[in-house]
Write a structure and sequence with these properties.
Elements lengths: L1 H14 L7 E6 L7 H11 L2 E6 L2 H11 L7 E4 L2 H9 L3 E2 L5 H4 L12 E8 L2 E4 L23 E2 L6 H14 L1 H13 L9 H10 L4 E3 L2 H8 L4 H8 L1 E4 L10 E9 L5 H11 L2 H11 L2 E2 L8 H6 L10 H5 L1 H11 L3
Parallel strand pairs: 1-2, 1-3, 7-8
Antiparallel strand pairs: 3-10, 4-10, 5-10, 5-11, 6-8, 6-9
The structure holds fe (iii) ion.
C-alpha cells in the first residue's frame, strides 16, 4: 500500500504542470530605502516576488547593454528622465502596454512611444534666505541673472543631470540664444565654484554663504523632517519661491520606469507598474520620499502642501533627453564647472 501511494505521488508530480512563482527583476537607481517598502507591499498583495538590483543609473544601463537579450532585467527605474531617454536611445526598452492606471498619466510625463513613464514628480524651484531676501524681488528664473544677484547664487555642478535637464528645458522653451544668455548670466552671479549636492546648496543659503539656491524640493522636505535638530533649523531658514508662475511654470522632472526590451517577465512587470501608480503607492511616495504624485487626484502630505501649489513647465520630458548634449555644451561654454 505504502508503495502504491508513493507511485501515485510520483506520477501526479510528473504530470502536473510546474507552477513557477511569478517574479519581476528590477534594476533600480533609486536608494533601496525609498522603494523597498513599496516592493514588499506589492509582493504581499500579489505573491509576485521582486528581485531588486540597486546601482548607479549609468552603470545599470551599461549592464543592460552588455547583458543584451540574456538580461534578466524587466524594468529600469531611474530618478531622472535623461537616463530613461538614454536607455531608449540605446534600444534597451520597449513599449509598455497601456493599462487603466497608465492612461490617467498626463501626456508630458510619459514617452511618446510608451517606453517609459513617470512614477513621481520632482520640482526644482528657487530657495531663498528667509532673512536676507525680499521675496517680491524674485519671481522668475530670469531675475537671477541681474546684477542684484551678483555673488549670491548657489547651485551644484553642471555634471549633475538635474541641472542638465533644467537647462535642456530652458533651451526647449526659450530657444538656444536666450538660454545661453541665461546660463552665462547665472554663472556670472555664482557665489562660489559649484560643489556638493542640492542639500549642500540649501545649507549654504542657511549659513549665509549665498542667498538663493536652485534645488529639488524633496531635499528641503527631507531636512525639515530630519531627526537632527541642526538640520531642521537650517531648513527653517529657507523659503521656496515658485518661479515663472505667470508664464511657463517651474522646472520639473520625474523618477520613472522603463520596460526593458527583452523583459522575461513582462506581465508581472506591468502589474508592478500598475501597483506603483496606484493611489496607495502614490500616497506613500508623497509622504515617505517627499516627491509629488504624478496623478492629479492624490492628496499631498502636509509638508508638501506647506511649500504651496505651483504651475509646472509643459515641455514633453523626452525633450530633456534630446537636448541633453546641447545643454551640457552650453554650460561648458559659460564656464559652469
Ligand atoms: Fe536627488
Amino acid at each position: 500500500m505504502k508503495n502504491f501511494i508513493c507511485f501515485v505521488f510520483v506520477v501526479v508530480t510528473m504530470v502536473s504542470p510546474i507552477v513557477m512563482a511569478e517574479q519581476v527583476n528590477l534594476y533600480s537607481a533609486r536608494k533601496e530605502a525609498l522603494i523597498k517598502p513599496l516592493l514588499d507591499k506589492f509582493t504581499q498583495e500579489t505573491g509576485i516576488s521582486v528581485n531588486l538590483v540597486t546601482g548607479n543609473a549609468d552603470n545599470l544601463i551599461t549592464r543592460l547593454k552588455s547583458e543584451g537579450k540574456y538580461s534578466p532585467a524587466d524594468l529600469l527605474l531611474t530618478t531622472d528622465v535623461g537616463r530613461l531617454y538614454r536607455a531608449k536611445q540605446q534600444d534597451l526598452t520597449q513599449e509598455i502596454a497601456t493599462s487603466e492606471a497608465i492612461s490617467l498619466l498626463p501626456n508630458n510625463l510619459r514617452d511618446e512611444q510608451g517606453h517609459w513613464l513617470g512614477l513621481s514628480l520632482r520640482a526644482r524651484p528657487l530657495m531663498v534666505s528667509v532673512d536676507r531676501v525680499d521675496f517680491k524681488t524674485l519671481t522668475n528664473l530670469e531675475d537671477l541673472v541681474s546684477s542684484e544677484w551678483k555673488g549670491r547664487v548657489c547651485i551644484r555642478s553642471s555634471s549633475n543631470i538635474y541641472n542638465q535637464s533644467m537647462v535642456a528645458a530652458l533651451i526647449a522653451q526659450l530657444g538656444e540664444s536666450d538660454a545661453q544668455e541665461w546660463v552665462n548670466g547665472l554663472v556670472n552671479n555664482f557665489a562660489r565654484s559649484p560643489q556638493g549636492g542640492d542639500r549642500d546648496q540649501i545649507k549654504a543659503v542657511a549659513s549665509g554663504m549665498c542667498d538663493v539656491a536652485i534645488a529639488n524640493t524633496y531635499y528641503l522636505a527631507g531636512m525639515l523632517s530630519s531627526e537632527d535638530t541642526t538640520t531642521q533649523e537650517q531648513a527653517k531658514k529657507i523659503k521656496v519661491i515658485w518661479p515663472n508662475q505667470a508664464d511657463r511654470g517651474v522646472h520639473i522632472n520625474i523618477s520613472g520606469v522603463a520596460l526593458t526590451k527583452n523583459a522575461p517577465n513582462k506581465d508581472a512587470a506591468i502589474k508592478l507598474i500598475d501597483f506603483l501608480l496606484s493611489k496607495e503607492s502614490q500616497l506613500w511616495y508623497s509622504t515617505a520620499n517627499h516627491e509629488y504624485p504624478v496623478l492629479a487626484d492624490i492628496a499631498w502630505s502636509e509638508l508638501l502642501q506647506s511649500f504651496g501649489r505651483f504651475k509646472t513647465e509643459d515641455v514633453p520630458l523626452s525633450r530633456l533627453g534630446e537636448l541633453n548634449a546641447e545643454a551640457v555644451q552650453m554650460m561648458d561654454r559659460a564656464g559652469w564647472k
